[in-house]
Structure formats: structure tokens, C-alpha cells
Specification:
Length: 160
């Protein structure tokens, strides 16, 4: 399990998909990309999706994602994405009252229980008191993170 902080954008792509029964159907799918701006997010998702979609497609919507970080899994069967709301618990030294701060994460896992396990795996390595207050499956199809360029003249590469 590895986590990554970045500027995440949710992008909705609309295209004609060949269904299991062989029929063509217009679908809209949600993807997440790491980008510096809306313009770069659109260019990134178009570049990524051109590898997977034959034919025309359009970017219907782009918005900033509210995720603080994304927890990626290396397990092959972890093919779903879950939005998790985690509260960080601190004690105010002056008032000695408990304070809770909400943070959202996107977590890759095969099941809801797997998502909770993956959160605990990442957060358990910290000294922060936390509580997982909500976990829900999203419609996110895939996440495309940014990978550093290998050399100055080479095209940037991206990782999932």
C-alpha cells in the first residue's frame, strides 16, 4: 500500500462502449488524474484514454477532487475505489478539549473491508489518533498519477 499527495482532478469521459452482448452503448465513466490545472487535467485524461478507447470520446466534466491523498494498492484483485472520510483526533492544549478534523481519501481495494484494512495499514504507521467515520464505493474506473520524466527530452510518463 502506498499513498500519494497531489492535485487530483475527477474527469468524466463519454464514449460509445461495446457491451458484453456486443451492442454499442453511450456511457459516461469517471477517472481521476494528477494535474497542475484544469487544462493539464483535460490533456492528461485525453492522452490516457486514447490508449484504451478506439473511436471518439469527449470530456464531459472536470472538477477538483476533494481527496487529501490516494492510497494505491499493489494487489492485483484490488480493482475498486472507495472514498473514505477519516477524522484526525487531537487535544487542544489550552482548553484540553478533543478536536476532530475531517479528511477525505480515495482508497484502492477489492472490498469495503479491504479498504478499511488498507486505510489502517497506511494510518497505522503514523502517530496520529484517527477514526474512520465513513467508507463508500465510488464510480471511479481508474486513477492516473504523475510519473517523473526520465530525461529532459523525453515525453512525461504516467503511472496508475
Amino acid at each position: 500500500m502506498r499513498s500519494r499527495t497531489a492535485n487530483w482532478f475527477e474527469c468524466k469521459i463519454r464514449y460509445e462502449k461495446t457491451m458484453d452482448d456486443g451492442l454499442q452503448k453511450k456511457v459516461t465513466e469517471l477517472y481521476v488524474v494528477d494535474a497542475l490545472s484544469f487544462t493539464e487535467a483535460e490533456a492528461r485524461i485525453m492522452d490516457e484514454m486514447s490508449n484504451y478507447i478506439s473511436g471518439e470520446f469527449e470530456v464531459n466534466d472536470i472538477k477538483r477532487a476533494a481527496y487529501k491523498e490516494i492510497f494505491f494498492s499493489d494487489a492485483d484483485n484490488d480493482d475498486r475505489w472507495y472514498k473514505a472520510k477519516v477524522q484526525f483526533i487531537t487535544i487542544d492544549e489550552k482548553t484540553e478539549k478533543e478536536k476532530r478534523a475531517n479528511v477525505s481519501y480515495l482508497v484502492q481495494a477489492a472490498t469495503l473491508n479491504g479498504a478499511v484494512k488498507n486505510i489502517d495499514e497506511v494510518m497505522g504507521g503514523t502517530m496520529i489518533d484517527y477514526a474512520i467515520v465513513a467508507v463508500a464505493e465510488t464510480m471511479t474506473m481508474d486513477v492516473f498519477g504523475f510519473r517523473k520524466q526520465e530525461g529532459p527530452a523525453e515525453k512525461p510518463e504516467y503511472e496508475e
